């Protein structure tokens, strides 16, 4: 039986992972679960899966959880070091990295350094420190399996799953599909007044609020371009974004002979999660088979970089290299949070990011400490921009 640690167990990906794990009780044993502050949800998961360890974000949350699950064989801990411990423990084989944002970096890196099989949902960790993270994976012989649906589709469509694109024979391009999110066809002038709830109403996927806003700005696709660069070794010029509103094709690889290989499926994250969990085997995910006869039609078109300036910013950051993607990611996290709290408007998100990228010079990324220092500077610059915009909004 394989032990599994789920970082971010109370989130959208965490819940889908637990759903798949519950379908295979003889195959997986839940070793540890984590959450930040949603203690009741974590307590419910502890009652169902009886992990050895549970980690939350604060001593208060830990006390609350301990009271809720008194009598269970689960020890309760809190804080970043505890997250790193459950990700690197000898008692776990698999680590699902599903914490949202930069907070996931330290534990995901700890899993890499401990040589674990990592199921990577937390794209922000890879965007922040791609080279350092991939070096740690190689050095410690960790296994990195992409959970993000597009990257899992590419993984399945490459000539061999661990192929590196520039060296892989015959790969011409990675075609990263994007739904275009809820504002694909909305008049650009009206985007100033959209609410957080409208931005979070994704047409095809049910996800956490941060990634939902990222999908509405298409920063999610921008982060995924950077993620694809690191996972598959593809330079920016070999990654193309294709809008495909139906989200049935999850991404494609095109080859020099004109072949295009794709992975299709219903838009349900349990498919890539099950694929990564059992790789190279296949297990039941609970997702219904795709009924192609029910498809009204599949559309594809090029993205509009003026409607979605965040996508252009991400391509620029990837080309700039070094700490530029970390700056982009940090400023985006601040801007999205400010938008969700209604302190800035939707179209201010890219303004905040641009400001941070303008005032914080990027440079090489020689260490995690250097990346985190840049991350902190970008957050401070983005906070300034948010304050200025927010005071403008109040006037
Ligand atoms: P959610 O917001 O639904 O869940 C986030 C999880 O992380 C929760 O368990 C949350 O705990 C925990 N968390 C939040 N902040 C912190 C923190 N500071 N420290 C430790 N833990 C924290 O997000 P999703 O499940 O949607 O996304 C998770 C990751 O997966 C993201 O990186 C996203 O980009 C990626 N992803 C998600 C997809 C999806 O379909 N949802 C698809 C592809 C990638 P609590 O509940 O207590 O707040
Ligand atoms: Mg995705």
TrEMBL record:
Q: What is its EC number?
A: 1.1.1.267
Catalysed reaction, written as an equation: 2-C-methyl-D-erythritol 4-phosphate + NADP(+) = 1-deoxy-D-xylulose 5-phosphate + NADPH + H(+)
Residues that coordinate or bind Mn(2+)? 148, 150, 224
EC class, as a word, reads oxidoreductase
**Annotated pathway, please?**
Isoprenoid biosynthesis; isopentenyl diphosphate biosynthesis via DXP pathway; isopentenyl diphosphate from 1-deoxy-D-xylulose 5-phosphate: step 1/6
Identify a single GO molecular function assigned to this protein. NADPH binding
Annotated binding of 1-deoxy-D-xylulose 5-phosphate, by residue: 123, 149-150, 179, 202, 215, 220-221, 224
Residues covered by the 1-deoxy-D-xylulose 5-phosphate reductoisomerase C-terminal domain: 144-232
Q: Which GO terms describe its biological process?
A: isopentenyl diphosphate biosynthetic process, methylerythritol 4-phosphate pathway involved in terpenoid biosynthetic process
Domain (DXP reductoisomerase C-terminal): residue spans on this chain: 264-380
Summarize where NADPH binds, as residue positions. Answer: 10-13, 122, 124, 208
User: What family does the entry list?
Assistant: Belongs to the DXR family.
Protein's recorded name: 1-deoxy-D-xylulose 5-phosphate reductoisomerase
């Amino acid at each position: 039986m394989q032990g599994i640690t789920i970082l971010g167990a109370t989130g959208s990906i965490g819940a889908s992972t637990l759903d798949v794990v519950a379908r295979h009780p003889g195959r997986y044993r839940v070793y540890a679960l984590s959450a930040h502050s949603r203690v009741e949800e974590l307590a419910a998961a502890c009652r169902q899966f009886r992990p050895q360890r549970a980690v939350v974000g604060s001593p208060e949350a830990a006390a609350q959880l301990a009271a809720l699950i008194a009598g269970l064989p689960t020890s309760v801990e809190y804080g970043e070091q505890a997250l790193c411990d459950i990700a690197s423990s000898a008692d776990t084989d698999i680590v699902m990295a599903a914490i949202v944002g930069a907070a996931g970096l330290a534990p995901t890196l700890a899993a890499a350094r401990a040589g674990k099989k990592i199921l990577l949902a937390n794209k922000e960790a890879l965007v922040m420190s791609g080279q350092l993270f991939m070096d740690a994976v190689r050095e410690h012989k960790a296994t990195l399996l992409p959970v993000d649906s597009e990257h899992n589709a590419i993984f399945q469509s490459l000539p061999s799953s661990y192929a590196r694109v520039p060296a892989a024979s015959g790969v011409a391009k990675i075609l990263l599909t994007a739904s275009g999110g809820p504002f694909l066809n909305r008049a650009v002038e009206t985007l100033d007044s959209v609410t957080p709830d409208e931005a979070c109403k994704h047409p095809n996927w049910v996800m956490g609020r941060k990634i939902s806003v990222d999908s509405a700005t298409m920063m999610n696709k921008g982060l995924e371009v950077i993620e694809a660069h690191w996972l598959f070794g593809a330079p920016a010029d070999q990654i193309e974004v294709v809008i495909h509103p139906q989200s049935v094709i999850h991404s494609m690889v095109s080859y020099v002979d004109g072949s295009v290989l794709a992975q299709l499926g219903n838009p349900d994250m349990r498919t890539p999660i099950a694929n990564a969990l059992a790789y190279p085997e296949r297990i039941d995910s609970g997702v219904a088979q795709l009924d192609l006869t029910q498809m009204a039609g599949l559309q594809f078109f090029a993205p509009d970089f003026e409607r979605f300036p965040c996508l252009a910013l991400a391509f620029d950051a990837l080309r700039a290299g070094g700490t530029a993607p970390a700056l982009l990611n940090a400023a985006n996290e601040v801007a999205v949070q400010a938008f969700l709290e209604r302190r800035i408007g939707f179209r201010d998100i890219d303004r905040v990011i641009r400001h941070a990228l303008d005032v914080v010079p990027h440079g090489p990324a020689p260490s995690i400490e250097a990346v985190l220092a840049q991350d902190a500077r970008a957050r401070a610059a983005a906070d300034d921009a948010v304050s200025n915009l927010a005071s403008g909004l109040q006037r």
